[in-house]
Request: fold
Amino acid sequence: DTEVTQTPKHLVMGMTNKKSLKCEQHMGHRAMYWYKQKAKKPPELMFVYSYEKLSINESVPSRFSPECPNSSLLNLHLHALQPEDSALYLCASSHTGPTPDTQYFGPGTRLTVL
Amino acid sequence: KNEVEQSPQNLTAQEGEFITINCSYSVGISALHWLQQHPGGGIVSLFMLSSGKKKHGRLIATINIQEKHSSLHITASHPRDSAVYICAAGGGATNKLIFGTGTLLAVQP
Reply:
């Protein structure tokens, strides 16, 4: 199984809502990533988890709150978002360690903030 | 100046043509990744390479570590190859990727 799944596929939320994005993989990967991608732009790294611990936070606003409850699951909790946060949110996973590894990407959640 | 630069930004080709996309990077890397993204779709990893050349079907990726340059070639291009191709410099224990700006390829029948 080389699949990363993400739910939901689409999400529309108001600026006062609280919602969560979910990502799951069963490849035994111990590194998981959240990316934000705006239209016609490359992905921007938001967070990296390594062995279920947050290892990189790319100065992301606190209205985005990541969580890694176990080695297969990665959540992104959303609260009080702004319309400019509308984007495609991609999750990825890979092995960790001294040798480089391929990142496997999920299909993304397309988020619209009204 | 971006740490990872791609050229061209846009490329239109006729079916059957040989296509080359270039990537230059200024950072130290563990590996150079080539990724493909279809419109509205997720990202698929095509290659990860740290030296030499790799081939998969009609796709070939090369890297010159000394010159910090990589190329992605598509032979006998087909309309289904139409997508955005992104190169990314990878490094560190967390496998962090630094992305290029992408090349939008359109292959016309």
About this structure: The interface with chain B takes residues 31, 41-45, 48, 50, 55-56, 90, 92, 94-108 of chain A (CB under 8 Å).
